[in-house]
Amino acid sequence: MPHILVVDDEEAISDLIVMNLNMVGFTCSQAFNGQEALEAMNQTEIDLCLLDVMLPGKDGFQLIDKFKETNIPVIYLTAKSSLTDRVKGLNLGAEDYIVKPFETLELIARIKVVLRRNGKGQKNFRLKNVEVSLTERTVVKNNLQVELAAQEFALLEVLIQNQNLALTREQLLEAAWGYDYFGETRTVDMHIQRLRKKLDWEDVIKTVYKYGYRLEAPKG
């Protein structure tokens, strides 16, 4: 999985971001000011940087050129919410601009969009005797192809992209079916049961009591 540098001077926020990214399989480094960010960039192979704007020393706007020089994509993650700051950040070359506070699922989704855009996204997922190609949209179990309906694969992809995170039925509906889908949440239950049966994943796709579902996978 890709390695992400989290640059934020608020340690509690940084730790929370790293914890959530580790949960879905990313590895992370942390920096708490501009100088530490530059040092980390030179010491570790980084696939993406989450960069705060308001930092001690050099701020995030001043740092972005250094990341661009080494082709490290940047997502600004900041409390600076004005339109002027957003436009400035994007004009400086950031791939995205996310304002705090943010939803973890949205952050993960945006990270993965940027990684795919830069050719660094996750292409395959393997667990037990199942291998999923996220680019070719194929599933193989015990060296035999498993036929999934388009919506079943869409749901599987959301579970993989958010592995180890508990997702509500409503979140799964929104992510896998889209904002315009008005079906009942029991639709999710039906598709989960089909995935479990087809992949023999009864012990992998866990039911979270009175909440939703979680795909359990090794971390890191």
UniProtKB/TrEMBL annotation:
GO terms for cellular component: cytosol; protein-DNA complex. It comes from the Bacteria. One of its GO terms (molecular function) is transcription cis-regulatory region binding. The modification 4-aspartylphosphate is found at residue 52. InterPro entries: CheY-like_superfamily, OmpR/PhoB-type_DNA-bd, Sig_transdc_resp-reg_C-effctor, Sig_transdc_resp-reg_receiver, WalR-like, WH-like_DNA-bd_sf. The keyword Transcription regulation applies. Residues 122-217 form the OmpR/PhoB-type domain. Keywords: DNA-binding, Phosphoprotein, Transcription, Transcription regulation, Two-component regulatory system. GO terms for biological process: regulation of DNA-templated transcription. Residues 3-115 form the Response regulatory domain. Residues 122-217 bind DNA. May play the central regulatory role in sporulation. It may be an element of the effector pathway responsible for the activation of sporulation genes in response to nutritional stress. Spo0A may act in concert with spo0H (a sigma factor) to control the expression of some genes that are critical to the sporulation process. This is Stage 0 sporulation protein A homolog.
